[in-house]
Amino acid sequence: MPNTILITGAAGFLGGLLSAALIADPNTSNVRLILVDIVEPKAPTSAQAVTIEADLTVKESVDALFKTEFGVPDTIYCLHGIMSRGSEDNFDLGLKVNVDSVRLVLQAAREFGTQPSIKFILTSSLAVYGGPLPHTVTPDTIATPEGAYGMGKLTSELFINEYTRRGFIDGRIMRLPTIVVRSGAPAAATSAFISGVIREPLKGIECLCPIGNSMDSPELDLPLWVASPQTTIKNLVIAKHVHASKLFRHTRVICLPGFTATVREELQALEKIGGKAALDLVQFKDDSISRRLVSSWPSRFDNAYPLSLGFLVDEGGMEPIVRRFQKDIEAGIA
Length: 334
Ligand SMILES: NC(=O)c1ccc[n+]([C@@H]2O[C@H](COP(=O)([O-])OP(=O)(O)OC[C@H]3O[C@@H](n4cnc5c(N)ncnc54)[C@H](O)[C@@H]3O)[C@@H](O)[C@H]2O)c1
Prior knowledge:
alpha/beta, UDP-galactose 4-epimerase, domain 1, 2 domains, about 15% strand, globular, NAD-dependent epimerase/dehydratase domain-containing protein, NADP
């Protein structure tokens, strides 16, 4: 039996990495990919794939994804979206893409899916949290977002839980830590600087740090909840393999494992790997809007539940991540 997997947002940063990882996954044989994005996605070489350029806010475009030569997918990775700052700056677009179009994909999965239900994996975010938070977020912590992006993600999560409860789909909601280091061009995300302050200087390019005004600023002690792209992609593949009976009955939310690093620790790792010349390329200009949003996100989670399900966590803090990114630059793949 072929494994037919639909990835929305397949031209994006995680979508591209995930396509390649699914093709290489030893636990998923005979993979066929349906890749869709508003920008034409590229399929990994040698993959059995159809690539579709489509706007997923249009119902007909969504329905067409279930009528390709590969038929109805058995797994959907719903990755398309408008990132945090993009949703904050354009509220209507954020709602249309992060909520309305996700609902269209869910509804199509319900209508076209047969038994067993389609596995529907959503990439959500720690931006669903805000307000007063405990020292460590646990699965019992209530999500009260303080921004349009988190509100949109949380709304889609509620639909997925209810569609799962009704047996329309087999939902799995992955709340991702902030991914560092993100390769490619800077994203329209409030968190973009978290990768930018490593990526740009290691490439010899100046970058702006919107937290603090110098290396001595106390604002740099702002803690962040982060994970590497490599571990996150492995975890997204694992998300498809976890048996539904192991998941909580009342919610399909899983906060993927991460670790806490401060902005200062990031910059110290940059200096250690890239030298003082790299650190000197970081310019500081404190931006209160970005700082307010990032400060509202939690920075410590209890990893026990995801680890018990077999998900993975980065070891060794920021340094191995920065070192690996430098190697990727040297290899011409970052
Ligand atoms: N990268 C991170 O740090 C991070 C953290 C938490 C959650 N996430 C979530 O993971 C997912 C993927 O993140 P990413 O970093 O790859 O983002 P990305 O911005 O690189 O990719 C998102 C993709 O969605 C596509 N898209 C936007 N509107 C669309 C539409 N109307 N129709 C079709 N496609 C559309 C974009 O063209 C883009 O290629 C997103 O849902 C994001 O919210 C990412």
